[in-house]
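Lay summary. Proteins are chains of building blocks that fold into shapes, and those shapes determine what they do. In this project we predict the shape from the chain. Here is one chain we studied, written as its sequence of building blocks.
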Amino acid sequence: MSLEHPILLKSFAHIDQCIGCHHQLTPQAYEVARRVIHSTADFDFLNLLRFEPNPSSSDHFPSVIDIAINALGQSTPIVADVSMVRQGIQTLVNKTFQSPLYTAIDYADPQKPGKTRTESGIIRCIELFPQAIYIIGNAPTALLALCQAIAKGKANPAFVIGAPVGFIDVLEAKSALSSLNCPQIRVEGNKGGSPVAAAILNALLTLTYRIKHS
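And here is the predicted shape, written in a compact code that computers can read:
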């Protein structure tokens, strides 16, 4: 079963033609970046994505992509921060490994003053699913709460996609994630968003499916 629509493949071919060999990403990391570029029409993402541990053909330890492929192939639960991220990955999740899929905002606690709904929801999800895959595409407060939980040993995510967008707390949240010894794919700077986070996860799902069915 092919997971990629012919129009998507045509878009990938166009992106490949535009970029050529002018990048230093491994083939798998490039597939992630290309999917993000397709979703955003923004070639800046070729240089904004960070993979840690970094994929490199010369390394002998698992990269974050290796870790992600292993986690996705085992149908590890996935926690998205908002509904737009969930909607963006739902189709491929259902077509591939049918991982349990949760949305943090659905677990929001209105009784927690001073916290955004997504922040309180992510705190509850951490309590319920401390080893899940976490995808943050909208709410920097949720990413900050997740980073604090990781630093305190209350969460041990399989891996984290950190791609909130905006100006308030966004850089701080991404900086907090970068300081952690946690498998992660993040977007540097103020750019990001739900389509970006979903594109990263969808690229990883496609890679995993291809490997498992090769």
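What the prediction tells us: The radius of gyration is 16 Å.
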